[in-house]
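Hi C.,

You asked whether I'd gotten around to modeling the 283-residue construct. I have! Everything is below, sequence then structure, no commentary in between.
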Amino acid sequence: MAAPGRAGPALRVPLCALLCLALAAAARGRPSPVKVLSDGMWRELLQDEWMVEFYAPWCPACENLQPEWEKFAEWGEDLGVNVAKVDVTEQPGLSGRFIITALPTIYHCKDGEFRRYQGARNKAAFINFISDEEWKSIEPVSSWFGPSSFLMSSMSALFKLSMWIRHGHGYLTENLGMPVWGSYAVFGLATLFLGMILGLLMVFLADCICPSKRHRAPQLQPQPRKQGPESAHLLKNRYEEQEGDEGDISAEEAEGKEGSRRDSSPSGVRQRPAPRAAPLQKS
């Protein structure tokens, strides 16, 4: 039978191991203070103050940043800031809005204004950035290229479409066993079909908005109004007066032409009479 003094140290080692495992399990079971954002939660970034990290699971730099980001998130409630992260491989809409070209990328969002954080990547730097309001020294992203602009909204839709095509390609090749060239052929035919439908729709809309001359309705010309007997009598008198004036003018023109002909003819030239000689006087 073992002595009591020897049994005490032998039992301490398993107890310490169990205590460590319990603490580790409790730490794992505790919810993370970092919020996980999705494409559907985009509107929440337009309110209050946020610090958002864009990361990817395969990125080593992102893995090194996670412990510091978790520690900073524990101070979020005291600082009045929401600390969140976005997985760019699962949320293409948000990554398209911010045009993420490097990982990890951190953005500061406050009341619809977005600024890119480019300071040190540690807990103290993050806390000072919020508590000392260092973000005010950074110029916000232009409204034309901001995440809430129409341009970036269109870019977000394109990123979502590309992710949908990627998932569709994986489903056709992996789940249905279709060859790669077959998947490309399916997407190519679908693109041609959609292009034809959109082209016909645009032609139809253009024809409705700006119809061609052949299809335009004939314009009705206004009919002359019926004239009363008094107005017809006045018009008749004016017509007779105009005819009389034209007859007088034609008679005067004829007389003028006839006189000019007489003056221009050689027989019509008048000769002066020769003076008669004075009679001779007889001496």
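If it helps when you're writing up: The CA atoms of residues 109 and 164 lie 28 Å apart.

Thanks,
B.
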